């Protein structure tokens, strides 16, 4: 199983930027996709973005595309989420996930697809 550690969360004003990092250790032997989710109080955990092992053809949830960018450094076993033009509604705990049971982005909306999760990092956007 993969161990994931997120960092980079914090407090930022609306319109500002943050970059989240997630470093994986103990990775499985096969190539694996990684993803970012977020969860606000009282809401379900939702998929933000995902990226394949190669780093190509990333996926974004509709409300995040154009503002968020997911990337990965395979040599460092790290995935990043660059978040720009942040809004108050982006306030949430952001989680890194990996080791999916399916190779298809269409399945990634289901949290049960991912076997490994980080502890989460809080992002707070003040309006």
Describe this structure in words.
- The chain has 127 residues and is mostly beta strands.
- Helix content is 0%, strand content 49%.
- The chain contains no helices and eleven strands.
- The strands form two sheets. Strands 2, 4, 5, 6, 9, 10 and 11 form a seven-stranded mixed sheet that branches. It has a four-stranded antiparallel sheet with strand order 1-3-8-7, with no helix packed on it.
- The termini are far apart.
- The model has no long low-confidence stretch (mean pLDDT 92).
Q: Sum up the overall morphology in one term.
A: globular
Order of helices and strands: EEEEEEEEEEE
Task: Provide the β-strand percentage band.
Answer: over 45%
Main sheet specs? 7 strands, mixed
Question: What value does the average pLDDT take?
Answer: 92
Q: Rg from C-alpha positions?
A: 13 Å
Q: Name the poorly predicted regions.
A: none
| DSSP helix fraction | under 10%
Would you report the number of β strands? 11
**Intertermini distance:** 39 Å
Number of helices: 0
Structural class: mainly beta
